[in-house]
Design brief:
This protein is mainly alpha-helical. 59% of the residues lie in helices and 0% in strands. The longest helix is centred in the N-terminal third of the chain and has 28 residues.
Length: 174
């Protein structure tokens, strides 16, 4: 399950038990926490460093929000949130598959219109999220699902150079 956690097909599948999904996502969050611990150790080598302290504080807040997103996603009674999450994963999977099927622009009427089975084995591990993309989705999930969440007032912004995968992470939440 830990190796499956970045698989868009696995995340989208209603056959992935909620408990298994939650456990895999928690392990994913544990990896982020382990990385934060390494950052803390490294920052201690720098001595008194206010920017490092500020960044680590933000990382810890992000970790808490990721874990809250996992809780909201997998909590009994939040089946609508889980269904919306899986639907967005399936939509992104379909888009990724369609994108690979169209090698170049086609004239009207010349496109491949055969049905695509997104659940085919060939797509199981073919399309995966980068860790930051999945983390971002989890980080904002509570504020999307709960209109009373304090984090709705936070503007979450991804910054990566061109080609880093920001658009896909945003679209999965749209």
């Amino acid at each position: 399950e830990a190796s499956s956690v970045l698989s868009i097909q696995w995340l989208a599948s209603e056959h992935t038990p909620t408990e298994q999904l939650g456990a895999a996502l928690e392990k994913f969050a544990d990896c982020y926490d382990d990385w934060i611990k390494k950052q803390i150790a490294f920052s201690k080598e720098l001595g008194e460093n206010e920017p490092a302290k500020r960044i680590i504080k933000r990382q810890k807040v992000a970790s808490k929000r990721i874990r809250k997103g996992i809780e909201v996603l997998t909590r009994t009674g939040n089946e609508d949130v889980l269904r919306a999450f899986r639907t967005s994963q399936e939509a992104m999977l379909r888009q990724f598959i369609w994108n690979t099927k169209s090698e170049f622009p086609k004239n009207l009427g010349e496109g491949d219109t055969r049905r695509i089975d997104v659940w085919a084995d060939e797509y199981r591990d073919a399309f995966t999220w980068r860790p930051f993309q999945l983390a971002f989705q989890l980080l904002v999930l509570e504020s999307l699902a709960d209109p009373t969440c304090d984090d709705r007032a936070v503007l979450d912004l991804l910054w990566f150079p061109t080609g880093g995968g920001k658009t896909e992470a945003y679209l999965a939440l749209a």
